[in-house]
From TrEMBL:
Domain ABC transporter: from-to ranges: 8-253
Compartments reported by the entry: Cell membrane
Topology within the bilayer: Peripheral membrane protein
InterPro entries recorded: AAA+_ATPase, ABC_Ni/Peptide_Import, ABC_transporter-like_ATP-bd, ABC_transporter-like_CS, P-loop_NTPase
Organism of provenance: Sporobacter termitidis DSM 10068
Protein name (database record): Nickel transport system ATP-binding protein
Keywords: ATP-binding, Cell inner membrane, Cell membrane, Membrane, Nucleotide-binding, Translocase, Transport
Amino acid sequence: MSEKLLEVRNLNVRLKKSGETLVKDISFSMEKGQTLGIIGESGSGKTMTGKALLRLLNPRVFETGGEALFCGRNLLALHEDEFRSLRGKALSMIMQNPMTAFAPMTRIGKQLTVTLSAHLAIGKKEAYERALRALRDVNLHQAEKIMRSYPHELSGGMLQRAMIALALMLRPKLIIADEATSSVDAISEEMILEEFMKIRAQGISLLIVTHDFGVAAALADHILVMKDGCIMEQGTARSIFHAPRHEYTKELMDASVLAEVNNHAQSF
Ligand SMILES: Nc1ncnc2c1ncn2[C@@H]1O[C@H](COP(=O)(O)OP(=O)(O)OP(=O)(O)O)[C@@H](O)[C@H]1O
């Protein structure tokens, strides 16, 4: 029998001040090893959904309701300490802007080793060796040099890979990736997609937030389509791509194909 990894029930996000609801009682679930793509146009509530699950929304601004059971524990209700020990270890994230994942004034190596030491009972040398291995695993060959570098000394694509290394280091059960390829060039995008494919092959579940049908098509086995904070449709990638039921999904797919063609045309 398949094992539930994440079960989201009636998740909602509201702006405290205006009372506006940005995510409207959405429900979905993920099985172990599954890759789910959340797709929708700008402003549809994809990022809010990912951030709500990771508890990254400022509680002074946003109110989050509903349940998000991760391995049976409600992420939204866990005590801060419990949640912190889960985030990074069992649950990690890859964001659109890798600069937000790293502290700007601390060398990459220090950030990786501190993360490892915070979660595992290992010494400094072991942490250093593991961090090096994690960087090499994502094809960052000059790993020693990268360990000595500050975030601003790396290219966008390299930093994105370093962030993937950081996310993978503790062998999480689930990685939430938000527009992870949006801020890099086409070559880096291709490489990052390859890294995601490797992550999938290791049986780690992925929740991919993207506006790009191409990214979702390359990676996801299940798709959830969002609009105005609601789920318009969800199902296997095959069913969504081959027989979309909703007009909005068709429009999104057409827009994505058009963008792809335009990108291609610009490269000539
Ligand atoms: N800090 C904020 N304060 C108030 N409203 C916000 C804030 N951030 C986002 N929103 C609103 O929440 C809604 C959902 O935004 P969200 O960022 O989740 O969209 P998205 O689907 O991820 O789009 P994009 O791909 O452009 O990031 C939008 O209407 C947006 O204007």
